[in-house]
Amino acid sequence: MKNNEIIDDYLKDESLLKGNANNIFFCLNTTDVEQVLRNSYFNNIPITIQGALTGICGGAVPYNGDILNLSKMDKIIDLKIDKDSNFILKVQPGLLLKDLNHFLNSKKFNVSNLDSLAALNYKKFVDHASLMFPSDPTETLASLGGMVACEASGACSYMYGSIRKYIKGLKVVTPLKTLDIPRGLYKYKDLEKLLGVKIQDLPSWTKPHEGIKDVAGLYYEDDMDLIDLFIGSEGIFGVITEIDLLLINKPLKQIGLMLFLNNSSKLVEFVDWLRNNEFKKYNIAAIEYFDKSSFELLNRFRESVSAINKLPEISKDYDGGIYLEFHIDDDKQIESFFDILNQQMSTFNINQEEQWFAFENNDYEKLKSFRHAVPECVNILIANRKINDQNVHKVGTDMSTSDDLLFDTIKMYNKDISSLDIESVIFGHIGNNHLHVNLIPSTELDCEIAKNQVLKWAKNIVSNDGSVSGEHGIGKIKKDMLKIMFSKSDLDEMKKLKKILDPKSLINLGTFLD
Question: C-alpha distances in angstroms, 12 versus 54, 370, 412?
């Protein structure tokens, strides 16, 4: 479906980078996508793939040409049970995370469009214990296609890892051919056979750093599964039109605990203590950090953000906090952990008078929403500042490092921020050494200063074998960072593969390799 009248609404994503386009096509199925891509290729028209436009790196922002929008491809297509008795849900890429979670929680679904086997599987699904899809990005309005394209993770990646582990099949429309790629059937080396083209020297590049969250550039492992090439590729090879999701058993109880720091001098020691192998039995799903500035920002916007005003005001005396989430089947499973924690609070400068516990579902959802409120408050603040200067925008980091460099990384951030006259917050997935630093400029000049500072941080992180992106990808606004992380020869190899799958280089123009 083509619609020229509403293109302006689709020229930017959450990065607020703005592009331009001539036409927009809203596809409903794989056949529609094949037709749009075929026409674009025949007429040499660049095409940008879009989902829910929740990305913060500009990957869905069009640079000329046309837009192929997948937001109307939001259906659940099939429900299978694999040989290991796992439930596999086949969905279209435009399905939103919140709608997937609603389906999994309610188990309500119109089965009239399912074949007889899928309908039988649905009955088994209804009778089965609760299931979940473990990837939980902050933005529940994210689409599944976008999550796969950027290899999303979220707070609970501390326990569950990234989305890659839970993708069991993809259908990808490339300019050369539509590929059905079930996990385990094809290797990267099978690409030549699948595409039906001769590939002289299959490209290869540096492997991801082991032991850190890393989604920068294209994934690579020796003898890797072909499906892993497309997960995290940010749509530069083609259009994902179907996704097979592995569902796992949902824990009977999800418990949240917010701890407040009297001072943060023992912060990293506390995180290391939590990461000790002896605590794995307590099923800690998330270890999240908020600095003092994050709490100050939350207090400032109490009346504007409903997730905040449902909870008590945070004392100005606290020097930050740690949010823990537990996924367990029995309260008794973590009783001994709380006993141990109580004995250690003074050791790690944790406030012993106030903690926020969430044992019941309603309280858990409130605390979980609170955890997601910091980036929402940052966006409100930036929107207010843009009234005075349209060129103002948030400058954020998505860098990750190893356990042994967490202390030095936080020290670097705090030292450099103290020398800047720019508001900031530090929060995020400290359990994975993956913190988000948001610099919140007031002027266009501040934005340039902030960007230069982030590039300096990136060089430091990369020099210590860290990654410039732990979960958001590169998109169009972080290409300079990718050049810091990968050698020219590595990037040339990635570009060579891009040319094989997209010979005219028309797909997602300007996204990380262009």
Answer: 10, 27, 32
In the numeric block, which tokens belong to residue 9?
Answer: 């609404």
Residue with tokens 């997730």: 307
Residues paired with residue 287 on neighbouring β-strands, in sequence order = 324
Global pTM exceeds 0.85: yes
Q: Are 222 and 143 in contact (CB under 8 A)?
A: no
Domains and CATH numbers, the chain: 1-250 (3.30.465.10), 251-371 (3.30.70.2190)
Question: Which tens digits make up the pLDDT trace of 7-28?
Answer: 989 999 888 788 999 999 999 9
H helical segments located in 332-487 = 332-344, 361-371, 373-386, 406-418, 444-463, 479-485
User: Following CA atoms 437, 392, 47, 191 in sequence, which dihedral angle do they give, to the nearest 10 degrees?
Assistant: -20
CB 402 within 8 A of CB 466: yes
Kindly state the tokens that stand for 78.
């099939």
Helices 444-463, 406-418: axis angle to 10 degrees equals: 160
Tokens of 465: 């074998």
Could you tell me how many residues make up the chain?
A: 514
Nearest to 231 by CA among 153, 138, 178: 153
> What residues of the chain score a pLDDT lower than 50?
1
Residue 371 contacts residue 295 (beta carbons within 8 Å): no
Q: What 8-state DSSP symbol labels residue 97? A: H
Do the Cβ atoms of 260 and 335 come closer than 8 Å? no
**Residues 116, 118, 123, 124, CA torsion sign:** positive
